[in-house]
Amino acid sequence: MAQEFTILGLESSCDDTGAAVVRGAPGAAQVVSSVVEGQAALHADFGGVVPEIAARAHAERMDVVVARALDQAGVGLGDIDAVAVTAGPGLIGGVMSGVMCAKGIAAGAGLPLVGVNHLAGHALTPRLTDGVAYPFLMLLVSGGHCQFLLVRGVEDFTRLGGTIDDAPGEAFDKTARLLALSQPGGPSVEREALNGDAKRLRFPRPLLDRPGCDLSFSGLKTALLRARDELMVDGTLKVQDRSDLCAGFQQAVVDVLVEKTRRALAIYLAENPAAPTLAVAGGVAANTAIRAGLETVSAEMGVGFMAPPLRLCTDNGAMIAYAGLERFAAGQVDGMTLAARPRWPLDQGAAGMLGGGRKGPKA
Ligand code: KG4
Ligand code: ZN
Question: What 8-state DSSP symbol labels residue 215?
């Protein structure tokens, strides 16, 4: 039987302060405790995450969140084998808060320190929840990320494509703002779309005419703005028009994600994986229409589909603890020189991604 480890994981790259204890071996681990403290209320008045406010809140709350995670797990630092922490990519002040806290714990308790790439945390989550075997295909879709990753090992990622501008969650949030719906935009646009006719208004399907797996969502937002202005009478929008706008927009996102997934799956299947699996992570994976589209295309191509429970799909400490566990089990540790990195592409060989989103860098 593989050796088991107990890992404490810290996450602070955006607007969630997370700490968790994970125990087990690679591909066979359990979440013993996971505490996430969101900062939504702190940023609510600003229409987005304010990096300075986020960093201060992480610095103030991380030790409390860690203490709660240890307490809920019923363990002390003496029971921990290593401390894992998000070292990037993300908002630099928040990442530094987490790294400093982890260094303090590691130095104080004499524990090894393991730096984790936040995206690796998301990408390896299906191994934590379901022990999914390498290689698998991961579609990461959230407010800050959108990329296809071919995951072959704990440090072996190939990015098959990603957004060249906005992340899909950002597009849902902007759509909600343009239509005076509540934030976060994803759930409110999805609800509104239920009463709408997806075929009435025509939205573009960006980048479908080009080969490859890259995606683009910023044009959809512009199309929505134009369509809204054409439908508005004296500055007001009929309820049915708003629903039709939501339905048309959502269908465009579904169509683009499904077609790009089909292409990414074809590349992945060329490797002849023994148990082909498509996994999704990120808040946008909560969308029923998107999920249904991905399930259908997976089934068509003979690939298993899985989505971790939402609390492990969105930012949390357990995914960092688990990715740290895989690195630690492979004998990889970092020293006190571990640096916080605002940008840190998982696939070092791939060309860098453009821009930094409202919720932090997308690379
Ligand atoms: O992964 P997440 O919680 O945070 C980060 O982006 O890091 O994702 C949040 C994003 C938001 O943009 C939100 O609007 C979107 O996920 N989202 C959805 C749905 N639920 C959340 N988008 C579409 N449909 C949903 N049901
Ligand atoms: Zn994330």
Answer: B
Residue pointed to by tokens 């299906």: 126
Residues 6+ apart with CB under 8 A from 109: 77, 78, 80, 83
In sequence order, the β-bridge partners of residue 141 are: 146
Q: How far is the CA of 283 from the centre of ligand 1 (A)?
A: 4
Alpha-carbon distances of 331 from 2, 112, 325, rounded to whole Å: 14, 11, 10
C-alpha of residue 3 to centroid of ligand 1, in Å = 36
Mutate to test the pocket of ligand 1, among 14, 142, 220 (most ligand atoms within 8 A of CB): 142
Residues 233-261 have pLDDT tens digits of: 999 999 999 999 999 999 999 999 999 99
Q: Which ligand is nearest to the CA of 357?
A: 1
pLDDT of residue 354: 47
Model confidence at 74, pLDDT cuts 50, 70, 90, reads very high
* pTM > 0.70: yes
Residue 356 pairs with which residues in a beta bridge?
361
Whole-angstrom Cα distance, residue 297 to residue 235? 40
CA 101-348-281 angle, to 5 degrees, is 65
User: Which residues on adjacent β-strands are paired with residue 149?
Assistant: 138, 159
Number of Cβ within 10 Å of residue 110's Cβ equals 8
Q: Which domains does the chain have, with CATH numbers?
A: 5-130+311-329 (3.30.420.40), 136-310 (3.30.420.40)
The closest ligand to the CA of 36 turns out to be 1
